[in-house]
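// run 5 | inverse folding | seed 20
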């Protein structure tokens, strides 16, 4: 038997009462037009954190089973259940975007089990390239320590509803991605998405404008000198790593 869906006004109040969540650059969520919001996936709380901060016209994409089990916690927000093993699921996402609604998609497709970014699946890149719509990267930090909501139990210290930070990154486009085939474009687009997620997660953990400034400096230096060694990690008896 499924649980009753929480009324819309209950979810924000309940989330605010239970979860200490700091949102950095929330103003970047106030935008016109269709887009795809792409957060990293740290725990089962992620979708709730997003649902309490995004506009009502944003549709949440979720695994069929997850959608069935946790729809009650989404405050009546529209959810698009998808079978991640079915390549035709992308058609339903295209339909939503073409209708004028934005999507919330976790590009990793599953909750992290390593406490770092997982592989980014090419579906999000395909949607962005196919329709020419922007992507808004979002970093979430802290929720991976949420007791009974994380997949990292036993790997990291956990507690009930730990302090969490959400960092809203600058939107970007994949319209300039080159490639002879859509497959090539998707692969390159997925690489860009992964890099953008790395940046917002770093910004989220550093919590401030300094991190954005630092990332911009590093990006320019790499463009100027691709072979430049930015940092070295030396561990006794282990091969030195250069970045």
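// decoded
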């Amino acid at each position: 038997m499924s649980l009753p869906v929480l009324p819309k006004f209950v979810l924000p109040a309940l989330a605010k009462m239970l979860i200490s969540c700091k949102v950095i650059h929330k103003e970047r969520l106030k935008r016109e037009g269709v887009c795809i919001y792409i957060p990293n996936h740290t725990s089962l709380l992620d979708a709730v954190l997003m649902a309490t901060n995004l506009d009502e016209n944003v549709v949440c994409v979720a695994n069929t089973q997850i959608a069935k089990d946790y729809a009650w916690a989404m405050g009546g927000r529209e959810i698009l259940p998808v079978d991640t093993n079915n390549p035709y699921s992308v058609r339903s996402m295209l339909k939503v975007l073409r209708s004028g609604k934005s999507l919330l998609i976790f590009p990793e497709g599953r909750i992290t089990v390593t406490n770092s970014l997982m592989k980014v699946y090419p579906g999000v890149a395909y949607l962005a390239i196919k329709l020419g719509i922007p992507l808004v990267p979002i970093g979430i930090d802290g929720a991976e320590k949420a007791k009974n909501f994380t997949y990292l139990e036993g790997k990291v210290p956990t507690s009930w509803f730990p302090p969490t930070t959400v960092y809203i990154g600058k939107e970007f486009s994949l319209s300039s991605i080159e490639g002879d085939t859509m497959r090539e474009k998707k692969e390159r687009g997925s690489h860009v998405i992964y890099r953008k997620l790395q940046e917002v997660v770093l910004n989220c953990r550093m919590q401030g404008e300094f991190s954005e400034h630092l990332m911009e400096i590093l990006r320019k230096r790499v463009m100027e000198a691709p072979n430049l060694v930015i940092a070295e990690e030396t561990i006794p008896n282990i091969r030195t790593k250069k970045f």
